[in-house]
Amino acid sequence: MKRQLIAAFGCGVLFAVGLSLSGMTQPAKVLAFLDFFGRWDPTLAFVMVGAIGTHAALYRLITRRTAPVLAAEFAIPKKHDLDAPLFLGSALFGAGWGLSGYCPGPVITCLAAGGRPALAFAVGMVVGMVAYGLLRRQQPGTAPAVGART
Fold first, then answer.
1. 12 assigned to some structural domain
2. Which of 82, 131, 86, 122 lies closest to 102, judged by CA?
3. pTM of this prediction?
4. How far is CA 115 from CA 31, 58, 109, 119, 134, in A?
């Protein structure tokens, strides 16, 4: 368990450094990337292509192993269908990202700098996650949300 925590911390630090160096923690840069019909800044596309390329190259290589290095088995999602919650969640994510310039990973990195806009976004994000968890529990016949404590 200690090795998993150290690895998770190291991955988090690497992710935060990558977000900062790429400009993903700068809402103005993100909003400029999303402004296709105005002053479009395509530089974040290179970040995304790099991430997608890295994943595409390593996914098959890594999943050929019998098990991950620090766990008993791989945790690969089994659900592949497209449903209303997926579309609604994607729309809400996109609207939040487009209006604020923040998404969950970069906003956590920005919290370290102490910015009020990042704090406001993070509070709203947590409130939305809690509200979703509460609504999901009230619907009969639905499984608990991923990561929810039952």
1. yes
2. 122
3. 0.68
4. 17, 35, 10, 6, 29
Total residue count of the chain as it appears in this document: 150
Cα–Cα distance, 66 to 43 (Å, whole number): 38
Q: Is residue 100 part of a domain?
A: yes
C-beta separation of 15 from 105 below 8 A: yes
Q: Give mean pLDDT in consecutive 10-residue pieces for the chain, a chain of 150 residues.
A: 90 88 87 90 90 92 91 87 87 87 85 84 89 80 55
| 110: its two tokens | 């920005």
Q: How many domains does the chain fold into?
A: 1
Is 133 domain-assigned? yes
Return the structure tokens found at 82: 């497209």
